Amino acid sequence: MIEAENLCKKFERSVRRGRRSVKEEFFAVDHVSLEARPGEIVGILGPNGAGKTTLLRMLGMLMTPTEGNVRLSLADGSEIEELTQKKAAIGYLSGNTKLYPRFSIREYLKFLGELYGFDREKIRERTEEIFQVLDMEVFGDNRIEKLSTGQMQRASIARCLMADPAFYILDEPTLGLDILSADAIIHFMQEQKGQGKTVLYSTHYLEEAEFLCDRIYMLCDGKIIAEGSPAQLMEQTGTESLREAFHVLYV
Hints:
Elements (H helix, E strand, L loop, with lengths): L1 E16 L2 E17 L3 E6 L6 H8 L7 E7 L5 E2 L2 H6 L1 E4 L11 H11 L4 H14 L15 H14 L4 E5 L7 H16 L3 E5 L3 H7 L2 E6 L2 E6 L1 H8 L4 H9 L1
Parallel strand pairs: 3-8, 3-9, 6-7, 7-8
Antiparallel strand pairs: 1-2, 1-4, 4-5, 9-10
């Protein structure tokens, strides 16, 4: 389980006051509490600038909160305490993920497996399993610099999968992808949910979120303004789709 309690992140920005430019502090994430349980896909939705990426980076241990804390608990209830172990338990994907361009995907996964201390047979088995899950057999031996956008995104998810993490945090994983590539990633998220993994992700594709998410947190100006299952959010707003509910909440 991922649990966040009163998470805040404060930044500084320049604003105009008359003829002068002055510095002021603001909260990109403002006292957010949430949870994502094992075997659950939880969506983080909101317009651009709502604070989604900042929130996910704090949940993924990539950014230190100004206030608040994040707890990670395994399916047996044991809490992960040490920061390095927390990072190892999370598969984090964002648009800024960088891969080694001159490696093939297979070579890159072998490199990661060796870093994780896997033996040769485990690396081979894990690689073949990942290729099957993400439908990568056809291009798995291509160099990363030659991959299409959709193939590159699947390679990035393969990187997350190699260590078999308990938690996935995915920042707009299907953004800009063709239907087949997006479907492969959606299938991946469903597979991980079925294995009892915790999946937390943001997206601007509301139909995708309505189909996939068990629960959703709606974020605006760094604060949660609504939460619940897609059906509950539609009931709360008197609408018949998550897209309509989004417009009621934000317009």
